Amino acid sequence: MVVVMHHGASDAEIDQVCDSIRKRGLEPLLMPGNTMAIGIPSSIPPDVREPLGQILQILPGVDSVTHVSRSYKLASREFHPADTIVDVGGVRFGQPNVTVIAGPCSIEGYDQLKATAETVQRAGATVLRGGAFKPRTSPYSFQGLAEEGLRIMQQVGKETGIRTISEVMSPDMVETVAKHVDILQIGARSMQNFPLLIEAGKSGHPAMLKRGPGATVDEFLLAAEYLLANGNQNVILCERGVHPLDRTYTRNTLDLAAVPVLKEYSHLPVVVDPSHGTGKAKYVPAMCYAAIAAGADGIMVEVHPDPRESLSDAAQALTPALFEQMMEKLRGFVASAGRSLSRIEARA
Ligand code: PEP
Ligand code: MN
Q1: 106 and 50 fall within a common domain
Q2: Three-class DSSP labels, 117-186
Q3: pLDDT beyond 90 at 81
Q4: Which residues line ligand 1 (CB under 6 A)?
Q5: Rounded to two decimals, what is the model's pTM?
Q6: Confidence of residue 71 (pLDDT cuts 50, 70, 90)
Q7: Rounded CA gap, 132 and 168, in Å?
Q8: By residue range, what is the domain housing residue 191?
Q9: pLDDT confidence of 41, banded at 50, 70, 90?
Q10: Separation of 279 CA from ligand 2 center, angstroms?
Q11: Do residues 175 and 38 share a domain?
């Protein structure tokens, strides 16, 4: 059950709701946001639920009381029937927009990032990606430029006007990454790094959560719940492929069926990442088109000025020419889905 308070409800009104919940042996969970929401995360016996709901509904300061049957509450469509639109400095994720995020796997230097930003922006991308802190399987692989990379990203964002996203791997770096980029990326390997989710939740900074390679839909949405329950309403989900049966042909198995599932059970925008989903540049365009057909609100694509020189994920990076071709064709799929590519509006 979730109780949503009116905007500006007083502390006394909130306390009164909490007291009514505690009186029935249940523990309220305060979820601050634009408006205060009070959740009752445990299951409530049916004979308690109905009368409790009726009492809470008439308490002063209460806007609505919703019964949520799923284990995730704030992420569920039962709690929030309308699609959530996440506005990132004038770039919107969610109906009717399709937002294209593109850029290198890793930020390798100013020239590389600036050239990529100009290419992808010209072709219709509104968000530039690039990792500064890289989760690499081997400690001997390129680990990213760290804070220097973030500074480059911020500078390129300012110079081109494109919005930016970069990964944050640890709770203590949330503030620093949020200062430099428009969206925090929580990587697949970090999907269940709960201290990180809590910190990113408290920051309120737009966050894109990638699905762990072994995560079920419920686990994915419960991870999103951590962000929401800690006060962050600006959450974007990203499907990036799950562990494959067979690595011979693709790196992961892009679970496109998860897109309509997530759209049914959650109100949060869904982005698809076919680069990590397939691991091979030649399969990326087809999966981008398929993602639009499946109802995705955006795609994230790795692009490098010269993939042969890429310091990470070289095999899956599109060349600028291939990205331009893909975007040309994507426009047709976007239009036939009754949607339009998002634009960069002025920052609020
Ligand atoms: C990335 O986007 O560069 C990345 C590391 O992705 P994932 O967390 O999905 O592996
Ligand atoms: Mn990558």
Answers
A1: no
A2: HHHHHHHCCCEEECECCCCCCCCCCCCCCHHHHHHHHHHHHHHHCCEEEEECCCHHHHHHHHHHCCEEEE
A3: no
A4: 105, 131, 135, 187-189, 210, 240, 276
A5: 0.91
A6: confident
A7: 8
A8: 86-341
A9: low
A10: 9
A11: no
